[in-house]
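Q: My collaborator sent me two sequences in one message, no labels, and asked for predicted structures for both. Can we handle them in order? The first one she listed is below.
A: Yes, handling them in the order given. First sequence, followed by its structure tokens:
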Amino acid sequence: MLIVPNTCVDLQELFVIILGLVDNFRTFVEYLTLVIVEGGQLTDDAYEKYLKECEEVQKNMEKWDVHEGNMDMKAMMKFVYLHIL
């Protein structure tokens, strides 16, 4: 029987990692779907670029919310188009 010595685990770091996985799971699945459908590249750089594009779309949504009150149909279509790309 193999005896393994006690192992110390930083539970705070473990929870941070687990919560990060849960928090980013949807975005990562969206990226994987995009790679499969569009035939893109599955690289760290491409994923970082995708995250930056998502942040830009979020910032645009917040600007539309603040400056235009409720979005009109043209702004909604622009948002959908930007989100799809």
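Q: And the one she listed second?
A: Here it is, processed independently of the first:
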Amino acid sequence: MSKRTAKKPRPARSTAAAAAAAAAAPERLVIDCHALYQRVYRAPGGMHAVQAWMRANSINPDDVPVHSEIALEDSAFGMLVRYEAYLLNEDGRRYVDPDNPDRAATENRTALLQLPPPTSWVTTGGGTQR
């Protein structure tokens, strides 16, 4: 029989190192849907990758306007995905916003981030590409 040895405990990460890591990560990341569409539309499998990522995060890709942003934010519940979604009438069709007849009616929605997006899709809150 082989002899079992106990694993040595790892030292805890220092508070200063944890604070530095948290400070280095931006609190809000943004995906510009239109810019992403422009970049991945002609890439092989690009649109399928975007749609698969949205579905993995419980977002219906058909509900998200191309000219919108998806924000990734930290919260007490974990990372959240904040996005704009088209509203649908009783027949399941989009309709015009009564307050702004130049655009479709939308609402803001939130989902828990289940799968992080590729870093090439994300910009910081200020619009700089990562």
